[in-house]
Amino acid sequence: VKIFAPNIEQRDVVNHLKGSPTEEKRNVLVESARLARGNIQDLAELKADEFDAVIFPGGFGVAKNLCSWAVDGKNCTVNKHVNSTLQAFHSAKKPIGLCCISPVLAAKVFPGCEVTVGQDKNVDGRFPDAETASAIAELGCKHICKNVNESHVDKANKIVTTCAFMCKAPLHEIFDGIGTMVQEVLKLA
Question: Which NCBIfam families does the UniProt entry name for this protein (predicted)?
């Protein structure tokens, strides 16, 4: 297992205590190294032939830094190294795991694929970003409704997705869904 991140400046730095952007500037690779405790490489160095699968975590950073979904929605652009990584694993018929908002990366890069970001309706207030499912459909992909503790496997494209924090749920339910995604990725590897 190796961890990678793009060596780019963050779109913005958020003070998560206050929930607002700051004037501070940070680098995605450096900030990811903090989270990974230094054991990380530049995404530009990733070679798909050296790995059995790739998994992209989610989070708002994906929607701001790995692509421009947070600002541009379905009209977003995908970071060139993220795009080439996805393309390399897909071309090699190796599994791709995506959770939280990161399934939009597959929807943008692989028209016609199947992904989930949870539900397409804000069921009981648990899916406040349910409109993301409609945007995925507008990109020519199929959104599959799943509960937070489930994942979806697009067997034709070897793409496994789960909604994670796209659902307001207890952490153990989010953990279970991510666990099923990882298990399904490993089955396809």
Answer: PRK11780.1
pTM: 0.94
Residue 89: how many other CB atoms lie within 10 Å: 21
Beta bridge partners of 27: 9
User: 46-188 in CATH: which number?
Assistant: 3.40.50.880
Catalytic residue among 67, 76, 99, 100: 100
Question: Would strands 41-42 and 4-5 be described as parallel, antiparallel, or unpaired?
Answer: parallel
Which of these, 116, 112, 151, 150, lies nearest to 133 by C-alpha position?
116
Compute the mean pLDDT over every residue in the chain, rounded to the nearest whole number.
96
Is-catalytic flag, 100? yes
The kind and range of the H/E element at 97 are: strand 96-99
pLDDT digits (tens, 9 = 90+) for 69-115: 999 999 999 999 999 999 999 999 999 999 999 999 999 999 999 99
CA distance 165 to 155: 24
How far is residue 122 from each of residues 55, 117, 127, measured CA to CA in Å? 26, 12, 4
Q: State how far the Cα of 183 lies from the Cα of 189, in Å rounded to an integer.
A: 10
